[in-house]
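Can't paste images in this forum, so I'm doing it all in text. The chain is below; anyone willing to post the predicted structure tokens underneath?
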Amino acid sequence: MLDILPQWMKDGIGDDLLFWLGYFTNGKHLTWYASVQYTLAAALFGALTALVMGLAGAALRNARFGPARLVGALYINMVRGVPDVLFFLFFPLAFEQLVELIRAQAVCTPEGLAANAGQWPPCDAANWFLGTPEYLALACVSLGIVYGAFAASVISGAMNAVPRGQLEAARAFGFSRAQVLWRFHIRQMWIYALPGLSNVWMLIIKATSLLSLLQIADIVLWADRLGAPNFTRSAGLVHPDWRWGYYLVLLVFYILVTFLSEKVFAAVTRWAGRGMSVANPA
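Text version of the structure:
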């Protein structure tokens, strides 16, 4: 990238600064900067999936049908107890092997199954080659399922926090059950749920550091690669172990994302609470 600079600018910058500008703008570092998109995409789509799963789990938890309440309670209580890193590894692997098992029923011949007995996949034709987009999608679903249980617990509690007197007053004015649910119950629920959902969002942001476990070249994986001791035959030791510096950049990045997230949630909470008198929504 330094080739586009005019010579007079290079002379003014100096050799030392030119070296560091060239080092931090080489191909590997540009790829590191671009890998931020994977972290942000996993956080955003994982959060959307978690919100959908949370709404569904809260609806089941508060349902009138007993078995539905049991399913909702099991989802909320059991999934929250599963370490996120364990589920992050289990779900994509299990889903991948399930797809390969289904494909094997259609594409594998008896000879191929016999040749691969005791191995996986059942035959070479059933092998499903996953790239970054597929692993990223599986990562978003994994985050959504795990943190959807936390979101469901928050939303369920927020639904119960809405004053029953207001709902009864709405029904007394002739609103239907669906109108009471959408125009009063859910409308007022958000002011109670947003503080807890902001914590769930922070957990999802932290969990995006696990993307490298799914072979996604995210900012954490590239920081480890770039900071590791770099030795080449032509130049010898280019630099020693600089990983602490790259991890420090990641620390600043996550702190910045957390700071901006808090500002956004504060603005959304003010918007959701307009026209409502709530002393302490938390």
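The radius of gyration is 26 Å. The mean pLDDT is 83.
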